[in-house]
Amino acid sequence: MRRPIKKSFSELVQENKQELLRDSEALERIEEKLEEKQLRKA
């Protein structure tokens, strides 16, 4: 079995961005988690 071709970090980031733009529900959950963390730090 051949190993998959390694992608650069920026390529992976771009892929993740595209997936999140398609999956707005996941994006909402991430935003909520970030807000909670910021509120705890304040």
UniProtKB/TrEMBL annotation:
<protein>
    <submittedName>
        <fullName>FbpB family small basic protein</fullName>
    </submittedName>
</protein>
<keyword id="KW-0175">Coiled coil</keyword>
<dbReference type="InterPro" id="IPR025004">
    <property type="entry name" value="SenN/SenS"/>
</dbReference>
<feature type="coiled-coil region">
    <location>
        <begin position="10"/>
        <end position="40"/>
    </location>
</feature>
<dbReference type="Pfam" id="PF13040">
    <property type="entry name" value="Fur_reg_FbpB"/>
</dbReference>
